[in-house]
Design brief:
This is Protein containing DUF1570. By secondary structure, this protein is α+β, with helices and mostly antiparallel strands. It is built from 18 helices and 12 strands. A 5-stranded mixed sheet has the order 8-9-10-12-11, with helices on both faces. A hairpin with a 4-residue loop joins strand 11 and strand 12. Helix 1 packs antiparallel against helix 2 and helix 2 packs antiparallel against helix 3.
C-alpha cells in the first residue's frame, strides 16, 4: 500500500464524460483500488478511474515564499505575496502578510491605506432593525430566522444542525463565505490602488432551503428563475439563494445515486457477490453529491455577492443603466471555482472558458464589438441559453481586469453614468445604447483591433486547474 501526497486528483466517473477535480491525499491499495481523503470524508475509487497529480500545494508555495520575505525584509515582496495569497483563496494568510509588511515599514504609503481599509473590514456595522424589517416585508418571511455577521444580515429557514466537518450551521457557513467574498473583494481592488468605501449598513441576503419557495419569487418578479440558484435585486438591494445543485454534474450524480440505491438494496437482499464494493461506491457517490452541492452553492453565492457589492460601493451604481456584460463579467470574474470551498479571485472556470473557445472564431458572436455592444445576452436569451454570453463577458473582463485595469476603471465610471430609458427598450434604444457603449469603450481603451489581438493572445494562454494538471500528466 502506497500513499501519494498529492493536492489534486482527476476522477472520471465510469461510463460517463463527467470529470471531477478533487483535493486530498490518495492511498493506493492492493487489488487496484484507492482511497482519497477529502476534507468532507473518504472517497473510494478504482485506481484506473483516477489520475493523481503530485504538485506543490498553495500552502507549500506560500510557506517557501514567506521564508524569503522574512529573510529579505522587503515590504513590496510581502505585499506581492499577500496579493498572491488572496488570488489563491488564502485570505487569512493574505491578511497576516499585511501585518508582516507593517512590521517592516509602517510608513509605507500603500500599506497605511491598506491598514485603514482593514479597520473598516474588521469592524461590525451597527445593527439597524429597519434592515431586518425590510427583508421580512419583501420576502414575506415572518417565520424565517435571522443570523447576522459583521456585514450581512441573513434571513433563512435553513436547518440548525451543525455540519459534521465544519461544526457550523448552514446559515453560519453561508455567512462565513459571504464575509470571505466581502473582504476579498475590497482587498482585490485595494491591491490595484482602488480603495472602495465599505457600506455603512448590513447587506440583506435571503437563503431558502426549498426550491419551491425560491421559485415563488418568480411570480412577483415577472421573470424565469428556473435555471438559476440565486439572484440580486438592485432596487430592493437584496440577494436571494436556495441550497441545491443545478449543474449537469449534479444531475448525473443524482441519477446515478438513485440507480445505486436500488442496486444496493438488491445486493443486500440477495447477498450478491461484490456487494461490499457496490456499497462503498454508493457511499462515494453520496459524498460526491454533497461535495458538488456545496461547490455549486459556493459558486452561486460568490457570484451574486459581487453583484450586491458592486452596487453598494459605487462601482456600478444601483440607479445606473444595467449593462449585462459589464455586470455579469465582473461577477463571473470573482466567482469561486467548484471545489466546495472559496478558491480565490480570477479563477479560470471550465464552463466559462469553454464557451469563449467555442465562439472565438464566430465572426459575429465572438467579436469584441458584439460583446461590448451588449447584444450577446439579447441574442443568447432569444436562443434559450445565456451561458455563451456569460463566457464571453467573463473572458473579456478577465483580460481587462488583469491587463488594462486603470482603463477598465475609467470605463466602469463612464458606464455608471448611463441611464436606462423609461419604459420598455425599443430597437432604436438598443442601437443607440450599443453605439454609446462602443464610443465609451474606444475612448477608454484606444484602438479596438489592437486590443482584440492582445485579448486573443491572453486567452490562449489561460488554463483551468484541470487542464494544467492534465498537461502535467502527459
Amino acid at each position: 500500500m502506497t500513499t501519494a501526497r498529492a493536492d489534486y486528483t482527476l476522477y472520471r466517473l465510469p461510463g460517463t464524460q463527467l470529470q471531477l477535480l478533487l483535493e486530498g491525499s490518495v492511498t493506493h491499495h492492493a487489488g487496484g483500488n484507492a482511497t482519497l481523503r477529502h476534507p468532507r470524508g473518504s472517497l473510494h475509487f478504482s485506481s484506473r478511474d483516477i489520475h493523481v497529480v503530485k504538485s506543490p500545494s498553495p500552502q507549500a508555495i506560500y510557506a517557501k515564499r514567506l521564508r524569503t520575505v522574512r529573510k529579505e525584509n522587503d515590504v513590496e515582496k510581502a505585499l506581492e505575496l499577500s496579493q498572491w495569497c488572496l488570488e489563491n483563496g488564502m485570505l487569512e494568510e493574505s491578511k497576516s502578510l499585511l501585518s508582516v509588511a507593517w512590521k517592516i515599514d509602517p510608513k509605507h504609503l500603500k500599506l497605511r491605506k491598506l491598514a485603514g481599509l482593514m479597520r473598516y473590514l474588521n469592524a461590525s456595522v451597527p445593527t439597524d432593525p429597519k434592515i431586518e424589517a425590510h427583508a421580512r416585508d419583501f420576502v414575506g418571511g415572518r417565520e424565517m430566522q435571522v443570523t447576522r455577521s459583521k456585514h450581512f444580515l441573513l434571513l433563512h429557514d435553513a436547518e440548525q444542525a451543525e455540519d459534521e466537518v465544519t461544526g457550523k450551521t448552514r446559515a453560519e457557513m453561508r455567512l462565513e463565505l459571504l464575509e470571505t467574498v466581502y473582504e476579498s473583494y475590497f482587498l482585490t481592488f485595494a491591491f490595484r490602488g482602488v480603495f472602495l468605501r465599505p457600506p455603512r449598513e448590513r447587506l440583506e441576503v435571503v437563503l431558502f432551503s426549498r426550491h419551491g419557495d425560491f421559485l415563488q419569487m418568480e411570480r412577483r418578479l415577472g421573470g424565469s428563475l428556473k435555471q438559476t440558484a440565486g439572484f440580486y435585486l438592485p432596487k430592493e438591494n437584496i440577494s436571494m439563494f436556495y441550497d441545491s445543485g443545478t449543474s449537469e454534474h449534479f444531475r448525473v450524480l443524482m441519477e446515478l445515486d438513485q440507480q445505486l440505491t436500488t442496486a444496493r438494496t438488491n445486493a443486500k437482499r440477495n447477498r450478491l457477490p461484490g456487494a461490499g464494493d457496490l456499497i462503498r461506491f454508493a457511499k462515494t457517490i453520496e459524498l460526491l453529491i454533497d461535495i458538488t452541492r456545496e461547490s455549486e452553492d459556493v459558486s452561486t453565492v460568490s457570484h451574486e455577492a459581487i453583484h450586491q457589492l458592486t452596487a453598494n460601493t459605487g462601482v456600478f451604481p444601483r440607479d445606473a443603466a444595467f449593462v449585462r456584460w459589464v455586470h455579469e463579467g465582473m461577477a463571473s470574474y470573482f466567482e469561486s471555482a467548484k471545489l466546495a470551498k472559496w478558491s480565490g479571485v480570477g479563477v479560470v472556470d471550465q464552463t466559462r472558458i469553454n464557451y469563449y473557445r467555442i465562439l472565438e472564431r464566430d465572426k459575429l458572436r465572438g467579436s469584441l464589438e458584439f460583446i461590448v455592444s451588449d447584444f450577446g445576452f439579447v441574442l443568447e436569451s432569444a436562443l434559450g441559453n445565456q451561458l455563451p454570453a456569460y463566457g464571453q463577458a467573463w473572458a473579456l473582463t478577465h483580460f481587462l481586469f488583469n491587463q488594462r485595469f486603470d482603463s477598465l476603471m475609467k470605463f466602469y465610471k463612464r458606464v455608471g453614468q448611463l441611464k436606462d430609458p423609461e419604459g420598455e427598450f425599443t430597437k432604436e434604444d438598443w442601437n443607440a445604447r450599443a453605439d454609446e457603449l462602443l464610443k465609451i469603450f474606444d475612448d477608454c481603451f484606444g484602438d479596438r483591433t489592437t486590443l482584440e489581438l492582445e485579448w486573443r493572445q491572453y486567452m490562449r494562454k489561460l488554463r483551468t486547474d484541470t487542464e494544467r494538471l492534465a498537461e502535467e500528466l502527459d
